[in-house]
Design a protein that fits this description.
By secondary structure, the chain is an alpha/beta fold. The chain has two domains: 1-26 and 279-303, no CATH class; 29-269, TIM Barrel. Helices cover 51% and strands 14% of the residues. It contains 13 helices and eight strands. It has helices spanning 2-9, 15-25, 31-43, 60-80, 99-115, 130-141, 158-165, 190-206, 219-231, 250-258, 273-283, 285-296, 298-301, and strands spanning 47-52, 84-88, 120-122, 147-152, 171-175, 211-215, 239-244, 263-269. Strands 1-2-3-4-5-6-7-8 form an eight-stranded parallel β-barrel, surrounded by seven helices. Helix 4 links the parallel strand 1 and strand 2. The longest helix is centred in the N-terminal third of the chain and has 21 residues, at 60-80. Bound molecules: flavin-adenine dinucleotide. Flavin-adenine dinucleotide is lined by residues 123-124, 150, 152, 175-179, 215-218, 242-244, 247, 266, 287, 290.
């Protein structure tokens, strides 16, 4: 309830205040800011994946601009020797405008990333795009290998998707899922979503030639995953842990790195920070109350 109230009030809050919150989750408005964040992460043995903020472009020119933006990011990653790759959203490349043109943009970006030896992840959006995203991933990965996708454990279909991908050598990020989905297709109870996550993790780890990225801040899950990989003697170069920039799990991630695990932060940047922050909050009102505490905690007030 409180989270929903905060969301309702957001349009009335000063943009400067919202920006203070948003910048915890966003590396900055341009690549130079993101570069500094990543260099700092790399110096502490963390890896990164860069996301140019935005979804659902409204013209082909905008979508072409997104491709140009990502190519520039890829060039900088290579030139600066950053331990980083990219994450892209298909609607940002125009999927809802013109499917064929969007797929062509994904091929183009994947080719350019491959020419630089860099990996590219296709983020997963809402359930209306799940099958399309998996199909496009399968098509673009074919013959390239530097492309991966995301599975969301809150979807009831995901266990079967994990089974299908488990022996294909795919590179899968496994997350819980952030969009609001109806109960006929999605688990709603946190324990069900966790159980589904662990079943999918098991399928992906047991598969041959896969690489799995465990994207979660849920300490209970992180502990269970660490036990799972240790118990099964899964080689440490076949999986990694991932977290979103700004979520306060640094101590846990530092400890994982100290124990020899690979950890990657998801680093969004770009001018579209306001839309990103408000959309994330609308999708997950619980985070809105977290934001309110962050903004108004005594520690922050003194800044
Ligand atoms: C690297 C990465 C990539 C992702 N990619 C996608 C994607 O492509 N598609 C998709 O649908 N979803 C994606 N997500 C989001 C994911 O689906 C979840 O919505 C999100 O990670 C929260 O779930 P959780 O597993 O952290 O568990 P939760 O139970 O939601 O969170 C566990 C704990 O983490 C803390 N926490 C979580 N989020 C926040 C926050 N924003 N601010 C402060 N504290 C927080 C809280 O303390 C919470 O109790 C991604 C997440 C990560 C980490």
């Amino acid at each position: 309830m409180f989270g929903r109230f905060v969301i309702f009030m957001m349009p009335l809050m000063p943009r400067k205040l919202i920006k203070r919150f948003a910048m915890r989750y966003v590396a900055g408005e341009d690549f130079d800011s993101a570069r500094q964040v990543i260099q700092n992460m790399n110096s502490r043995n963390f890896h990164a994946t860069l996301d140019i903020l935005g979804e659902d472009v409204s013209s082909a020119e905008q979508a072409d601009g997104v491709v140009a933006g990502y190519k520039s990011v890829l060039k900088h990653i290579a030139e600066d020797g950053l331990q980083a790759n990219i994450s892209v959203k298909l609607t940002h490349l125009g999927l809802r405008l013109d499917e064929a043109a969007a797929i062509q943009r994904v091929h183009d970006l994947a080719d350019y990333a491959k020419s630089l030896g860099i990996f590219m992840r296709i983020d997963m959006e809402d359930s209306s795009l799940t099958q399309k995203t998996l199909d496009i991933h399968n098509e673009v990965r074919e013959g390239r290998g530097n492309v991966g996708v995301v599975l969301q454990s809150y979807l009831k279909r995901t266990e079967e998707d994990a089974r299908q991908l488990a022996n294909t050598g795919a590179n899968i990020r496994l997350c819980k899922g952030i969009y609001r989905e109806p109960p006929d297709i999605a688990f709603k109870h946190p324990d069900e979503i966790r159980q589904s996550y662990l079943r999918c993790a098991e399928l992906l780890l047991e598969g041959r030639g896969n690489y799995t990225a465990f994207a979660t801040h849920d300490l209970q899950l992180i502990t269970a995953l660490e036990e799972m990989v240790t118990f099964r003697s899964i080689p440490k170069d076949t999986f990694e842990f991932q977290a979103l920039l700004g979520v306060p799990v640094e101590d846990t991630l530092d400890a994982l790195v100290a124990r020899g695990f690979k950890v990657r932060w998801y680093v969004p940047f770009g001018a579209d920070w306001y839309a990103y922050a408000t959309r994330r909050l609308e999708e997950n009102p619980d985070i809105a109350s977290y934001m309110f505490r962050q903004i108004f905690s005594p520690q922050n007030r003194s800044r």
